[in-house]
Design a protein that fits this description.
By secondary structure, this protein is α+β, with helices and mostly antiparallel strands. Helices cover 28% and strands 27% of the residues. The chain has ten helices and 17 strands. Strands 1, 2, 3, 10, 11, 12, 13, 14, 15, 16 and 17 form an eleven-stranded mixed beta sheet that branches. Strands 5-4-9-6-7-8 form a six-stranded antiparallel beta sheet. Helix 8 links the parallel strand 14 and strand 15. Helix 1 crosses helix 6, helix 6 (178-193) crosses helix 10 and helix 8 packs across helix 10. It is globular and about 65 Å long.
Length: 348
């Protein structure tokens, strides 16, 4: 079971806003947590957080990459009546957006809005069966006209979804942004716990949801001997998903990714695959193997850097990712931490 302090940290990470390109508040939490652990901390030109924990001179260099950004929206246009049109930032299903409450982070402060919709009273039967595209949606902030709206917000303001954090039975939690604040938490704990000859780089990457951008530049700068992307993955243990579509399930340990995006993403090298599997078997840490046709992670950018970097991906199975109500097991989070800590320590 996670301690109350650890749960509070996960809650803080999830509830703190940080869409792609606006991750600075998450970086500040990471810095606070590692200031007494790391030998050096820096924020690079792209906003990536890099904490270095020095090891022996002859030890390997290991990069732990956890992306800080969450999916969200951005103010694109304000009409004459003060309603806001928006662009989506990251992979969002339009069906999830309807009637959500949002926060617009403006220069004047946080502004609450709602994504409006046509009431059912005037919706035709054929319309009710269709998903409304995001381009047809709008945000209502209560402004009387465009002039008043422009006093409150500006084009380009980032928008996050309003949600809350809840502890569920059986050591589960629910929140927005578990993708990938759970990965950030795992990285923090690994940095705190590892006792190894390796030099560790704890990296909070930016703009993963919009192109794996931060990981590309940090891996080039650090040029590690090994790298691990710490993320979440689909959990196929709920209605609506066939077992063969998402065989990894919550409660049975992290997913060791063998291939993602049907090989267009990472194809984990044998040295990393064997390291993670052998470590899990040796220390009886639960894990699952995943071959995915779907999305990819920072590992894809990292492993193609320079002459190539041996890279692995460890992911916490998470239900309903890229929504405001993701659910994950803290037991899986702890197993992820234990597996990567033991794997790094065995590199000696």
């Amino acid at each position: 079971m996670a301690s109350n302090d650890n749960i509070k940290l996960i809650e803080e990470l999830c509830m703190t806003p940080g869409i792609s390109g606006h991750e600075e508040k998450i970086a500040a939490i990471l810095e606070r947590e590692l200031k007494d652990v790391a030998d050096d901390i820096e924020i690079d030109k792209m906003g990536n957080f890099i904490a270095t924990k020095k090891g022996a001179e002859d030890g390997p260099k290991v990069m732990l990459a956890s992306h800080m950004d969450e999916i969200g929206l951005m103010v694109r246009y304000i009409d004459d009546k003060g309603f806001i049109k928006f662009s989506t930032i990251g992979g969002i299903n339009d069906q999830m957006l309807m009637n959500q409450t949002v926060t617009i982070h403006s220069k004047t402060g946080d502004i609450t809005g709602v994504i409006g919709s046509k009431p059912p009273h005037v919706t035709k039967p054929e319309e009710r069966k269709k998903v409304v595209p995001s381009d047809d949606m709008f945000i209502d902030i209560g402004a009387k006209d465009k002039e008043q709206a422009e006093e409150m917000i500006s084009i380009g303001d980032p928008i996050t979804f309003k949600s809350w954090f809840a502890e569920f039975p059986n050591n589960y939690v629910m929140a927005k942004a578990l993708d990938n604040r759970l990965g950030c938490y795992v990285m923090l704990e690994v940095m705190k716990r590892v006792n190894s000859k390796a030099t560790l780089f704890g990296v909070g990457t930016t703009q993963e949801e919009v192109g794996l951008k931060g990981a590309r530049v940090t891996s080039y700068k650090l040029d590690p001997d090994y790298a691990f992307a710490l993320d979440v993955t689909l959990s196929g243990d709920h209605p609506g998903i066939k077992p063969d579509e998402a065989p990894v399930v919550s409660g049975k340990g992290p997913a060791v990714i063998l291939i993602d995006a049907s090989g267009r993403g990472i194809m984990t090298p044998k040295v990393i695959r064997d390291l993670l599997i052998n470590t899990g078997d040796k220390y009886e840490i639960p894990y699952q193997l995943e071959v995915s046709d779907g999305g990819t992670t920072d590992g894809t950018s990292i492993h193609l850097t320079k002459e190539g970097i041996p890279t692995g991906v460890l992911s916490v199975p998470t239900r309903y990712i890229h929504t405001t109500v993701s659910v994950a097991s803290l037991d899986d989070v702890e197993s992820t931490i234990e597996l990567i800590v033991k794997a790094i320590e065995s590199l000696e």
